[in-house]
Amino acid sequence: MESNQAINKFNPARKGIKLLMTAGPVEVSPRVLAALAEPSIYHYYSGFIDFFEETTKKLSRVFRANPERQDTFILQGEGVLGLEAAVVCTVNPGDKVLVFENGPFGKWFGDYVVNAGGKPVYFHEEPNKCFDIESSLDFIEKNRDATALTIVHCETPAGLLNPLREICNKAKSLGILTIVDCVASLGGAEFDPDGWGIDISVSASQKCLSSTAGLTPMTVSKFAWEKIENQKKPLRISYLSLLDWRDSWVKSKKFPFTPFTNEVYGLSAALDDILEEGLDSVIKRHKEMSQLVRDRGREMGLKLWPLEERFCSPTVTTFSLPGNMEEADIIRKMADRHGILIGGGYRELKGKLVRIGHMGYQAHYPFVSATMDALEDILGKN
Ligand SMILES: Cc1ncc(COP(=O)(O)O)c(C=O)c1O
Q: Is 204 touching ligand 1 by the criterion CB < 6 Å?
């Protein structure tokens, strides 16, 4: 793999970091970096409109969306923009919303529901376990009067990949709108909005898609559009308004405000990387690299944070702390001695684990194996 080290010497923000193995933002390919550095363009010039449309079509292929049933689009802002927009545009005051929660991002959904005046009903699981399908279906059955359900695919801070197919299809069969956070899974794990009964899926450009932060890839189903239009007070003239986006972009090929042209260049190049390699092959590479991380970790005596291996995400791996070292200590030594940046616990998991991202461009053997060699060195020499 080509390393981006040549660029590092001009970039004081990286402070000597040669390899970024955090769970997003991630290392991006030289092709993406080059695209980001291209001269900008006026967003209403026909060249950019065509380019944006092409990028959206490529994204739809990566989502495996069914264009007959789902619109794909690219919101201009961090993934959080799409997550908040999905809730605020679909939840009426007083609506009951089923919030599946086994980590910080699951919880965020609940907060957005409260902000929208809805009533979250939580389905809680411990942050080292995925949702059990049978009890999830039972919970949904007992809450048939809910209007929406939210769930996170890859709960990044815990390294978990939650099951979606049965849960979302069950909710859909009862007419419950399904909203999925696939921020840390799209482009790195199987994902199928149409086959899995997902009405709104929300991702982000800086994780497995392997560009930089700033864009929110989304799909919205016909059922979701109906719900959005039939809100008691549909959200309009707002940065969070999905209707503004649909009426501007999807219907008229116009933008409601100035899009981030260079971020779109970067995303387009990242999607080219994925589609040229082939989505199946990219997903397989993520699986293989995550297996390598887990196997190497085990050989070093590390214990996986998720209770069972089948709960582990192919895009990020979390290990419990070895006992004789602090989280910050491991991260600092990895950076100082090896120039490799890995992550630690987030929110309630702070101080409990270390996290290695293997998303997008990071999920290549030389980067993963260098990271695990460095970790072995740190753990052996502390
Ligand atoms: C699962 C998940 N959801 C949401 C977010 C927030 O997305 P963003 O940082 O793009 O706003 C993250 C970021 O790490 C995430 O991992």
A: yes
